[in-house]
Amino acid sequence: xxxxxTTLGALLSALDHTVATLVDAPAGxxxxxxxxxxxxxxxxxxxxETHGALPAVYLLxxxxxxxxxxWLHGVGDREAGQRPRVLMTKSANDSPExxxxxxxxxxxxxxxxxxxxxxxVFALVRRTLDRSPxxxxxxxxxxxxxxxxxxxxLAQVVARETDGMxxxxxxxxxxxxxxxxxxxxxxxxxxxxxxxxxxxxxLRILREWGxxxxxxxxxxVVDVPEHPELDIRRRLVVGIRRGTDGAQSRMLGTxxxxxxxxxxxxxxxxxxxxxxxxxxxxxxxxxxAPSTEALLVRRLFGAHGEGVDIPSVAAALNLPVAGPxxxxxxxxxxxxxxxxxxxxxTSGGHxxxxxxxxxxxxxxxxxxxxxxxxxxxxxxxxAMGSAGAxxxxxxATRLSASSGLIRLHASAFRDDSVTEVIDDRxxxxxxxxxxxxxxxSWVRRLVTQLEESRGLIVRAAIAAPVAGLTxxxxxxxxxxRVLDSPATSGGSVTTLADARTAVLLxxxxxxxxxxxxxxxPRLRTLDEYDRTHGAELRVSAQTxxxxxxxxxxxxTELRIHPNTLRYRLRRVEAVLGVDLADPADxxxxxxxxxxxxxxxx
Length: 601
What we know:
The protein is an alpha+beta fold and 601 residues long. Helix 7 packs antiparallel against helix 11 (268-288), helix 14 (374-385) crosses helix 21 and helix 14 (374-385) runs parallel beside helix 24.
């Protein structure tokens, strides 16, 4: 085992026994773990077929005991060095067959509390595995000013120096870090660590006593007495704030110190007050400057200009330089509004936002438009592209807020995946994969889950295969071109190849629209005829072209007799001086009707 490896024992200590308990460890608690995968039932077969070593830690989400035992028998047939080291599941205590199969395969079995949230468990496991040796040792070093000190190390030090149990929360009472618990942990602590709210009666008492107000408004340590009737023990709490000026200070969170079976040390309040200052520095450090890894990831996606050193990025992120890789972009689908289609974003390079007032086409699901033929595709692009953009809603914010869920599932699909939020979109890099079909299936499942669990209608574009890390920024730009193209029928997930026709047609139409010198002046004559005679020649021509020249189909859509449409088309030919039987005239008229808005009187 290498010095930088995390052990099973260290992982269990970080998770805390309120979250996870060890059922069996055939190889002992010193077994090394370096990687983690979160797997759902649909993903189990792929992980059995994977060649080479599997991730060291598996979190099985929604997998029943029978499927878990079957999977364990399968991985038990692999060479010992290619098997997982640890299995974490909520059914570990309920199935003798699972325990027997895990033991036979030499895999440690960990039971996860039934109320624990998998997204939090997964994040804690990854954080523990990613921590440097210095961070893991910080709890023993007492060096809270070290650059690699984190909130978990701080919680452990404070707990040891006060004889209490520590939890550090953000301003919304979400637990950020905590120290190890013992048997005296009360329900408020247990439920908070498990990602749930504390007892309602106790929270009401805290509000009535003004505890939250006192913590927010002052730097004092508040002593909250025990409430045995609610199974709540004594606590000290202090706010974490940035700045010392009350009017200018910013609340960053709170530190809670629960008393256990032993009384807190006399200087516990002083230690807590000092911990608040250290925690403020740690949190502010993360707010002020993105980590080196975050900057490298953004540069890899092309969000910080050119000139990225790919070998250095690959080494820092532990990614393979060569392909094949896949780049997936996720964007919020914006449905049509009563004022017309909601505008799509126009990119000014790698993710630059659209200029105010830019006329853009709607964002939505991208289809394989090539199957429709050039005439129908251009008409569709123009019909949607002629609408102006309207004010943005909160959909982009909602998608960004769901980036954690996307990152969670991407890491479950490939533990070497990279996820980043840039502007109003989320991007995922899969440095290696087994099949493009598998990638597409995973993306479709994720898009469906975002709709079902978050109410988000999301579209996704896949660039694969990508030649390697040097091509990631270019692939992201191509993905943006797809996500910028207008919505057509065909589904919410597409590949670059499938969307090529729609993308190119949209960009051609946008180019013509932006250059008045490319507008056919004869369309102004057509618009003037419509206004003067109360006619509908323009819409009739558009509908006819979109119907691939089928008069009966177009007439049905317009709700007029076919002979009426034939008369209108002859008038179009006469007014414009074109021949709709001529392919060149048809193509030019199709493009011009799509690109050029109706002229004003």
